C-alpha cells in the first residue's frame, strides 16, 4: 500500500461514537485498540461503549423516527444516492482503510467498496417502490387496503470480515424504508463502519436517523443488551455466528422484535464427473479464497466424484500452491493475514485433526511465521472424511478438504448432512442433473457452475441454523417494513 493511500485512509479515521449527529466519546471514557492484523501495530483507539451509550443512540433514533418515516420516499432516495456518490468518490481511501484494519488485499478491498456501494444505490431506487394493495372487494359497503410502513428503530450488528459491505447492506434498506438505525460494528474492524457513517452524514442523513457506537468484545454484551431490552427498538439485523444469532433471537423475543439473522455456514461444493473441471477449479478458487476463506459462503466441504477425483485434486493443488500470501501493502498479495490469532489457532486445529485422522496434504498446512503471526498457507487436503472437525465446523480460513463420492444421491446426502444451510455450489453439464440437485440442496443460495454468488439484486440468506430473513433484492426491503391492513366501512 502506497504512503499516499495510507494517508488517505487515515484521513477517514474517526474514533468516537456518532450519536444524534455528534461525535461523542463513550460515557465511561474507556477506549480499546484497533490493530493491523498484518503487523499487530496499533491503528487507533476507539470508544468502548456500554449501556449508557447504547441508550443514548436509541434515544436519538426514537426521536428522529417520526420525521424520517414521514419524509417522502423520493427525498430519502436522493440522500442515499448522494451517500453512494460519496462512497465512490472515497473508494480508494475506503479500500485502503479496509485493508489496513481487516487485512484483505487491496484489490479485494476495492471490490468490497463497490459491492457495498451497490446496495446503497439499489435501495435508493427501491425506496420509491414500496407498494401496497387494494384488496378485491368482499362486501358492498367496505373497502380494504394494505400498505407497508417502516418497522421503526433498527439495531444493526455486523461482523469483521466485510466491514463496509455488511453494514451498508443493512443500513441502506433501513433508511430507504423510513426506519432509523442504531449500529454496532465488529470490535476488530470498527473504523471502516465509522467512516461510512461519516459519509452518510455528509450526504444529508438527518441527525438521529443513523447512529453508531463501537464496543470491545467485553462491552458488546452490555451495549447490545440495552437494545434487546428496549421496546422502542423493533428490529435486530445481525450477521455473525449461529450461537450469537440464537442468543439475539432468544433475548429479543421478550419484546417480540423482528429479526434478520445471517448466520454461520458449512457450504458444500460438489464436482460431478460431467463437470467442466477447469471451470470447477476456477470457480472453487474464486469461492474459497476470497478474503482468505474468511467468508460465510466460502466452500467448507468439497465433494468430487471418484472418477475425476485424482485429476481434479492435482489441478486444484497446483493452482493453490501458486497463490501469493502477503500483506495488503504488497500489490502481488492474493491472500492476506487472518483476522487474529484465534482464527489461526482454529485453522491449525482443524488441519492437525484432519491429518491425524488420515487426510493427506497436497499443499500448505502450515503457519507462515516469517510473514507474521496471523498468516496461514493456502491448503488442500485429500482423503477427507465426515468424522473430521473441518467437516462439521466452519473453518473460516484458506483450507480446502476434498471428499470423494460415487453417486449423485450420496453427494446430496453428504451436502445436506449439516445443521447449516446458507450456500452450496455444484458443477455439472447435465441439464437434468442441474434441476434435480439444485432443488435437493437444503440451502438458501445455490451456485450452479458459478463460484461468485453475491449481487445486490439477489436475495441473500439461509435456512436451518444459517438463519432467516433476506438481504438485498426487492425482498430485502420487506424485512424493514410491516403491513397495515385498513378496512373502511359505511361507504354507501
UniProtKB/TrEMBL annotation:
Keyword Oxidoreductase (UniProt): yes
Pfam families: Aldedh
UniProt-listed GO biological process terms: gamma-aminobutyric acid catabolic process
InterPro entries per the UniProt record, alphabetical: Ald_DH/histidinol_DH, Ald_DH_C, Ald_DH_CS_GLU, Ald_DH_N, Aldehyde_DH_dom, Aldehyde_DH_Superfamily
Stretches assigned to the Aldehyde dehydrogenase domain: 23-485
Enzyme Commission code: 1.2.1.79
Active site: 262
Annotated keywords: Oxidoreductase
A single MF term (Gene Ontology): succinate-semialdehyde dehydrogenase (NAD+) activity
Lineage top rank: taxon: Bacteria
Family matches, as PANTHER family: SUCCINATE-SEMIALDEHYDE DEHYDROGENASE, MITOCHONDRIAL
Family, per entry: Belongs to the aldehyde dehydrogenase family.
Name recorded for this polypeptide: Succinate-semialdehyde dehydrogenase [NADP(+)] GabD
Gene source species: Ralstonia wenshanensis
Gene: gabD_4
